[in-house]
What does this fold into?
Amino acid sequence: MSLMGIDEDEYWENYREEYEHGFRPRSEWADMERGPEYEDKNLFLDEEGQTEEIEAEFGCRMNELSDEELSEIVERFTGEWPDDENGPRWNRKLDCIEYRIKTA
It folds into this structure.
């Protein structure tokens, strides 16, 4: 009997080898480089009055700040510029700025 153009013994031999040695990618897509790695971070404004100072500086509440303004705040406190694709956002429940950076 022929399975996928090979005889049954050859099929089961290939199956046994894959099972013993792990899966081997069969397409060139498997060898392609993966996309960039990201790390999710939070910037907590813990010190007394930091949030109020920032709101006074920008003239609005934290949840009304734009992605660009939140990115400037993150850079000022951490030295890291958040990823532009998934901009930072204010998390009201945790009182922090959530942002993502590329790690690789």
Q: What stands out?
A: Residues 7 and 75 are 63 Å apart (CA to CA). DSSP finds three helices and five strands in the chain. The mean pLDDT is 83.
